[in-house]
Amino acid sequence: MPNPIDILKQNFGYSSFRPLQAEIIESVLSGKDTLALLPTGGGKSVCYQVPALCMEGTCLVITPLIALMKDQVMQLRRRNISALAIHSGMAFYEVKKTLENATSGNFKFLFVSPERLQTRLFLEYLPGMPINLIAVDEAHCISQWGYDFRPPYLRIADIRKELDERIPVLALTASATPEVQKDICEKLLMQAPAVFTQSFARPNLSFSAFETPHKLNKLHDILRKVPGSALVYCRNRRLTKDIATWLQQQGESASFYHAGLSSDERSIRQEDWIRSKTRIMACTNAFGMGIDKPDVRTVIHVGVPDSLEDYYQEAGRAGRDGRKSYAVLLYTQQDLKDLEAGIDKKYPPLKVIRDVYQAIANYLQLPVGAGEGEYFNFDLSSFCERFEHEPIITVNALLTLATEGYITFNESVFLPSKVTFTTNKEYLYRFEAEQPILEPIIKVLLRTYEGIFDNEVNINERTLARLLNIEQAEVVHQLQSLVFNNIIKYTAKKDSPQVFFPYPRIPANQISINEKDYGLRKQRHLQRIRAIIRYAYGHSCRSQTIQHYFGEENVEPCGVCDYCLSKKAKAAITQKQLLNWIDQAKLLLQNNPLNVDAVRVHLGISRFQCEKMLELALSEEIFTYDDSARLLLAEK
Predict the structure, then answer these.
(1) Residue segments in the chain with a per-residue pLDDT below the cut of 50
(2) What is the DSSP pairing of strand 488-491 with strand 374-377?
(3) CATH class in words for 205-338+539-558
(4) Any residues with CB less than 8 A from the CB of 278 and at least 6 apart, and which?
(5) Which of 1, 92, 205, 440 stands the most exposed, by the fewest C-beta atoms within 10 Å?
(6) Which CATH architecture best describes the domain 4-197?
(7) What's the CA gap between 47 and 28, in Å, rounded?
(8) Which fold would CATH assign to domain 417-491?
(9) Where are the beta strands (DSSP E) in 201-289?
């Protein structure tokens, strides 16, 4: 077996492992089931890539993040490491071909979204795959007590039963409480698992939270003081645009990002920010996952996320290069009230969930028994307007339907254009002779896309335009002409929110949920909300609060968060300073009494310093108050 450090150097160009990576890899290579908790940017992918390359066979990687899956495959291929992926948006023919390749044993990695695990096609090919390791990314998704429960993850246990019991499982996540860690191990049928947890402390990251009614001013003040790349997380799409526009008006280089933008817009804006062409990105939580930008100096949340797990993961995108960076939470009392009050909208009752399911069927004109395996365009705004549903409740009803497996709802899915020929070859030859203007595009389709005559395959209009040396709009026009003449079936790309039906549509009154588990998930969610509210109030070291939440004990204060710095400042006031301020105040009060704020401003001290000075002066009867609550010298 090759040496892991040699594999790391030869394939990834690193001379040494990051903390815990070597221990995790050793555990996997010894055949142990392993759970690894590494912070955002901690190098989780190396923990399965290196051992997989040390062993014969293929590593099965299960991940819900399609964009990250595609990125990993692309990066591995750039290093001449063979990798495949199966995800939503792929045609049946492509999935079948990928699975055939996976059984050949010539590919080191197969990335699969959890929804694909129980399809008949995948299960048919699974026994023939030379699996050497099952890597489960975002493993917290398997726990219904976690903050991002996804039921398809529960199917991983069934996959294990179909394979050699000696094949180890490596579960990876950036954040999981002790309860969720235990649940991950149980749900993945781990036997005596080795658990590796890197500390949740980030010594180079200064956490702070400010209650402020003037978020924009505070935001701009922070961005002026801290140079370098920044992320500004917002709770809704509209706010991302508003904040980016406002920052641009202040002369800042800013853009915005959310799932409602087209894939081209998202790619361009993301790339501009990664390359530091854009300094500040105002975004929803749709941005950041899998993006490797180590020099982010500031992450600011304009509003409060639903949980400390979410906050820690998003804030943790700052300072991955180890340099001093800042994570700032800006909030109002109303933000905290709305967060707790919104729990009932987050978990709507069964009747509302059934009503939304029926409304979806009506919106899509989908009869009972239809829709299996199909994607449908879904405009949430027009849906809510037409059926008079409140958007936030509708979204959460959709997510619950997805959690229970009735649908899949994706706000940022990209489904490529698809083409297949619908005529026979004899008629096609005659058509080409009669329509010479369309002959070039027919020839390019047949030569460029293997299997297109017999199977539906993904095509790219931009590629066709380049090969034919014509405009992309003309390509689309010619494809539509071929459809009109019954030569091909053409499905244009979809770059809008999609509803997918994994099973046939059923009557709405047959929709059911496990109400006990549903109630428990609601209760746990409320606990997570209350945890981040306590964090916002900040009655202790921010880093300690985070570490305790994730189960770390006996941790020291960080010394760099706003709470620790404030405590240092308070402790730094000496008796000599207090007496000096008292002497200065006595001179001010010789002729006339003054209110406390006037004295404080004259002395140029903080409210806390003023309070401490007055505490001593009043106890020593140096000052007193008059009937108007003004300070004056006490009579001796």
Answers:
(1) none
(2) unpaired
(3) alpha beta
(4) 253, 254, 255, 269, 272
(5) 1
(6) 3-Layer(aba) Sandwich (3.40)
(7) 9
(8) Arc Repressor Mutant, subunit A (1.10.10)
(9) 205-211, 229-234, 254-257, 280-283
